[in-house]
Amino acid sequence: MTKRSVTHATFVIERDYAHPPAKVFAAFAHPASKAKWFVGPENWDKSNHKLDFRVGGKESVSGGPPGGAVHYYNAEIWEITQNERIVSSYEMHMNEKRTSVSLATMEFKPNGAGTKLVLTEQGAFLDGIDNAAERERGTNELLNQLATYLNT
Asked: How far is Cα 120 from Cα 134, in angstroms, rounded to an integer?
């Protein structure tokens, strides 16, 4: 029998981007834009990213190393304030096993001519498969990819 556990954790990541809030927000809101940066590592097999950007809309993507476990992201959008805030909840799976459930808030704050993005995640990490430190590391990698996308 598998031992069950849950670890609750919150982390906050702040990033400054040299682009106005409307441009940074659009990178999250437009499906074609988000699909360019919201992906796993370069060598991973990837599925099609799907995004229905509206309150009640869904988002999904999956991927994993060739021949390895497939990681699934499934989200629902709960709050959208144009160019200011997005709140969503999401679950992560590794193959068929749910590894976490999280609430994520992205705030887009004017910072001079640019944007300060404040991302807060509150997670329930299940059965020791995933943890907040790894999620924060992965989220930082995604935000690095966002920076690259915004600068192209």
From this structure: 15
Contacts of residue 95, defined as CB under 8 A and 6 or more positions apart, other chains included, come to: 69, 70
Nearest to 132 by CA among 9, 18, 21: 9
Domains of the chain, with CATH numbers? 6-150 (3.30.530.20)
Structure token digits, residue 84: 């200011």
Q: Token match 């966002």: residue?
A: 146
pLDDT of amino acid 114: 98
The CA-atom distances, in angstroms, between 7 and each of 93, 129, 137, 140 are: 16, 10, 17, 20
User: Per-residue pLDDT tens for 73-89?
Assistant: 999 999 999 999 999 99
**Interatomic CA distance for residues 39 and 45, integer angstroms:** 10
Q: Which two tokens stand for residue 24?
A: 């940074």
**Would you call 53 exposed, middle or buried from its count of C-beta atoms within 10 A (0-12, 13-18, 19+)?**
middle
> What is the DSSP track for 109-134?
EEETTEEEEEEEEEEEEETTSS-HHH
